[in-house]
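From the shared-data thread, chain only:
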Amino acid sequence: MSSPIGARSQSGRDRLAVTAVACLLVVAAVHAGFVTYFTGVLAEREFLSGSFDSLARRLPAWDASVDEEAIGWEGIKDHGKTFLYFGPWPALVRIVPLGLFPTMYGRWARFSTLAAACIAMAAFAWLAARSLGANPRLSPRARRLWLAGSLVGFGLGTPLLFLVSCARVYHEAMAWGLALSLASLAAFLEIVRGAPRRRAAFLLFSTFLGATLLARLTFALPLCLMAVVLVAGEATRALRRRAGALGLGSLAAAALPAAAGAAYAMWYNLDRFGSPFKLFSYAGWYADPAKFGGDFNLMRIPSALFNYFAVPAATFLAHPPFVNLAHTVYFDPAIFFDWHEETLSFTVGSPWLLLGAALGAWALLRERGAWQAKAALAALAVQAVLISSYFFVTQRYAAEFMPLLAFAYAGWLARIDHGTRLGRGFAWAFAPLLLVSVLATTVSTVYWNLATNGDVPLAGRTRLASLFRPRGEVSEWKGRRVFLSDVTPAEQKAGNMELRNDQSIAGRPIVMGGRYYAHGLGMHAPCAATWEVPAGAVAFEAAVGLPDEARQCGTPAVDFAVTTDDGRTLAASGTIDSLDPARPFRVELGGARRLTLVLGDGGNGIDCDHGVWGGAAFLLP
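Structure, as C-alpha cells:
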C-alpha cells in the first residue's frame, strides 16, 4: 500500500514539473521571436555565421582551420591558415545537420543560438526546481510560484535575452558556454546534495564539463576547480566509509567525457597554434593586449564593475523606450582595447537576480558546513574576476557573471523562509523587481537591435521597426498613393552612393523622430533623382530629414528641394541637422511632367549626410 505522504510528495513534484515545462515553452516562444527579429525565419544568415559551418566541414578531417572569407577580419592567421579564436563546440553540433542539409550552409546560427538558450533555460529550471524541492519551509503552491517567477525572470530579465536576440557568431559562442556551464552546475548540485544516483550525476557533470571545455574556457575553468572539489568530497566519503561513495574505478569511468573534451581541446589548440596549451595567437590579429596592459589586468576591475553593476546616466533616455544599453565607460582607457560597445547594468536589467543571489551567497557563507557549495561559489567568483579584468567590456560578457549569480540564487531558493522578516521582504520585493527587469531588458534589447546593432539584417530591422515604432504618416490623403520607391527613376545623379528604396542609405529602416516609415527613399548628399509624374497625379508629399541613426555620426546637415522639368522649385527645406524634427513636404504638381528630388550637403561637407524622404509618394484622386 503506497504512503499518502509519498503520494502527495510525488504529486507536488509533478505539478512543479508541469509549471517548469509551461514556463519553458512560453519563454522559448519569446526567444524564438527575438532570435528571428520577429520575422519567424530561423534559416537565415547572421554576421559571420558561416564560420562555424566552415569549421564543421573540416573538423571530421582533423583540420581546425576555416575559410578566410567565412570569418573575415575576426580570423587568426597562422602558418598559412586561418583559424577561429572561438571554441569548436558550435561547429561540432553542426556536423550532422550540415551533412544532412548541405544547402543550409551558413544558415544554422539562429537554430544553434535558440537551442543553446533552451538548454540554458532547462538547466536553470533544473537548478531552481531542485532547490525549491529541497526547501521544507515552502508550501507546494509557493514553490510553483517561485519557480514560475524565476524562470520568466531568467529568460526575459537577464543577459540571456540579449544573447538570443542576435545570433551573430559572438552571441552564439557565448550562449553555448553559458548553457553548458549551467547544466554542469545543476549536475554539481545533484552530487553535493546527495543524489541517490551518484554515478549518473557524476557522469552528467563530466559530460557537460567536457562540452564546456570545447565551448568557452572562461566558463569551464571554475568547473574544473569544482571537479577537484567533487573528487576531494568522494575521497572524504570513501575514507569515512559512507554508503554510496564512488570508488576509483567509478570515478575514472565518470571522468572519461571530461577527459575526452580536454583532449580534443588540446588537439584543437595544437592544430591551430602549434601547442596544446596555447589558446590564442595575436600574430596578424587586429589587437595586441600587450600594448594596453595584457589580456587580464586587475586594474580594469573598477571600470568593469561600473559598467556591469552601476547605473550610468546614459542608461536612461528622455524618449521611448526610456532605457537602453549605455556605451561603456573606461576609467583608464590606456589599459583597454580602444573600442566601446554597450552594456545594461545588472542593477537595472536583473535586480531580482542580483538581490536573490546576494541573499543566497550571504546565507550560504553563514551556514555551517556545506564546504563543497562554498568552494563552488569561490570557484565561480574566479570567473567573475577574470572577465572583469579582461581588456574589453561588452554586454555579451555579462553572461560570464550568470553562473555565479544563478548558483547563489539557487542557494537562496533552497533557504528562503516566508516566516522570517527577510524572507517576507524578498517575497514582497520580488514581483516589482521582476517586472522592472523584464521591461528594462526587453525594451533595451529591442532598441539596441533596432538603433545600434549594425549586424541585424534589413528584414529583421524592418520587422522590429514595424512592431515597436509608431507609423510615420505624412498626411491623411483619401485617394491613391504611388510610392516613389516602387517606381524606377528616369534619371539619377549620385555623388557617393545611389539612392535606396524603403531604407536609409545605411541600409536601415527609415526612422525619423522615433517614427517608422515603411516606404521612402534614402540618399547620401549630393544626390538628385528624377521621376516621370504618373498620369492624374495632383501632388507630391514626403517627410524629409535625417534618420535617427545619424545622431550617432558626426554633425551631419543636409537640405532638400523638389524641382520640376521646367526649372521651378516647388519646395525647399533649408538646412536640416540631426537634431531637427522631420519636415513635411506637400507640393502641388501644377502640370509638371517630371519631378526631381534633390539632396544637398547643407554647407558643411558631406560627412554622414544621410537624408531620407519618408513616405515619398505621388498623390492621385
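The radius of gyration is 28 Å.
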